[in-house]
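Dear colleague,

Thank you for sharing your sequence with our group. We've completed the structure prediction you requested, and as agreed, I am returning the results in plain text so they can be pasted directly into your records. Please verify that the sequence below matches your submission; if there's any discrepancy, let me know and we will rerun it promptly.
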Amino acid sequence: MINLVDKTTRNITNKKIVGEVAIGMAESEVNRSVMKAIKAVTQDEQGVKFDTFSGNGEQILEKLDNGLIDFGIIVEPINKVNYESLPLNKQDVWGILTRKGSELSELTFVPTKRLLHQPLIISRQHGVKSMLANYLEIDEVEMEIIANYNLLYNASLMVEAGIGHAICLDGIINTTGTDLKFIPFEKKVTSSLSVIWKKERALSLSAQLFLNKLKEVLKDETKSISTELDENL
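Please find the predicted structure tokens below.
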């Protein structure tokens, strides 16, 4: 409650657009679009500040429902019935993070059958395990889950230590110059990301400004993608 009051006070103390925009973010390279919008806002309105939180879907939804953050950036699948949403343009690719020298490290793509009886480390976000099992056409009980993770960095340390292979999204861990390697699944599995905010909850001026800037960024990115496709035809 104290945090909520402090935030409200900061947002109404000046006639200019002043305030803090709080955003809960899932780990994803797709967040680069969000960063472009944040940069645009801070360049145009120096009185607007940002507070970001990294977490999984459940943690982000809890903070959003309690009014502690203005927006959540979540990886699908997730129930968005109580939220407004704006899809981001790009998708993340699922695969495994493994240690170089492991029995899977020489693969270019990971066949489903090679996952069976392997020690796996997987996100604890609700629905991820069943989603992956469904797309990979395997039974959940066939997946030998030895550990769960919230954020991928600590999971990458487990991989580095030889504990198992982390099922994760590409682009989150920079494997350059490390003993780690990301390998996508042979059967391509992707996830979309969305920006969500509570229905029927008014946004502050600073939060609305951020949302408008993000829509502009996504529109420009869509035009750029369409232009590239036309040039390649």
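Summary note from our side: The first helix runs from residue 2 to 11.

Kind regards,
the structure core
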